[in-house]
Design goal:
single chain; 302 residues; Phosphatidylinositol Transfer Protein Sec14p; two-stranded antiparallel ribbon; globular; membrane; phosphatidylinositol transfer activity; lipid transport; metal-binding
């Protein structure tokens, strides 16, 4: 097979052969995991909701992340499908109601006019306080609640991607650490941070286009070191990381129109630019998975 979407780029003849082998293994992987949904799309070629180009593009992310190696790609994909069956990330994104306080620190923006693979951005502002959150540490008290909210935000961002379009196949991340020096010593924050990094590394390969650490103090070096060293992140991925000690410098490097004024741009604040999740067009299989989740919950209640 050679008619892959433009987002599937196989650099050698050997990688092409190995990728084709990977595709032939998908039915066995699905059987092993007892699950066939990945980011809202069906992987089973026999399924009614199967979309071959999208499935190929998603599987290629696992293949590329594992340096075009078959055994490693199979292992990671199998683990991700088992995790998705258990964790239900689509439910976290589109069905569950999360603690209102997280709206202060997490935003999703989408601008079609932005440069390639900078159209979809997740923003995390961990130091913000509000009338109902006097201490920023309060965001990190509930590990499970925080993780489900953060995974839900990532899944929503993925819902705005077009996996067959090389211009919109990745998500950019902005982390603003202004006012969060407490992160250097708070054990609950470290625990949550490590958990989120672990899940993203394991189950969201080849999704990151760029990651900016803004207003990043020296005392938070453990975050960067943990991400880079503890999860064996490739040199290619590390190149996507950018540390800026002043948030206003973002506009100099991040050429996205309408950045908020606090980041050197001329746009409105993030609250005014936050994307309405209700406008995300759900894939048919996402709707089917959510329906199943609802029915299973109803059965549990009965």
């Amino acid at each position: 097979m050679s008619d892959y979407p433009e987002t599937v780029i196989l650099p050698t003849e050997q990688s092409k052969k190995t990728f084709e082998q990977f595709l032939t293994k998908i039915p066995d992987i699905i059987k092993d995991a007892d699950y066939d949904e990945l980011y809202g799309y069906q992987l089973n070629p026999e399924g009614k909701s199967y979309n071959a180009p999208v499935a190929q593009a998603l599987l290629f992310k696992y293949f590329k992340a594992n340096d075009y190696k078959l055994t490693e790609s199979i292992a990671q994909l199998t683990a991700s499908l088992k995790w998705r069956k258990e964790f239900k990330p689509l439910k976290a994104a589109y069905y569950e109601t999360h603690d209102e306080k997280y709206k202060n620190i997490g935003y999703l923006t989408y601008k079609d006019e932005s440069p390639a693979n900078l159209k979809v951005i997740t923003w995390n502002l961990y130091g913000l306080t509000s009338p109902d959150v006097k201490n920023a540490k309060d965001y990190f008290k509930d590990l499970d609640g925080f993780v489900r909210w953060r995974i839900g935000l990532m899944e929503q961002a993925i819902g705005l991607l077009d996996f067959t379009n090389k211009e919109n196949n990745y998500v950019a991340q902005i982390h603003d650490y202004s006012g969060v020096s407490f992160l250097s010593s708070d054990s609950s924050v470290k625990k949550i941070g490590k958990k989120v990094v672990q899940l993203f590394q394991a189950h969201y390969p080849e999704f990151l286009s760029a990651k900016y650490f803004l207003n990043f103090p020296f005392v938070l070096a453990w975050i960067y070191n943990f991400i880079v060293k503890n999860w064996f992140i490739s040199a290619e991925t590390v190149k996507k990381f950018h540390i800026l000690h002043s948030g206003k410098d973002l506009v100099k490097e991040f050429k996205v129109p309408g950045l908020p004024k606090k980041y050197g741009g001329n746009g409105g604040d993030l609250k005014s630019q936050n994307y309405d999740v209700k406008l995300i067009k759900l894939s048919p299989y996402t709707e089917e998975i959510l329906k199943r989740n609802f029915e299973n919950e109803a059965d549990d209640v009965d």
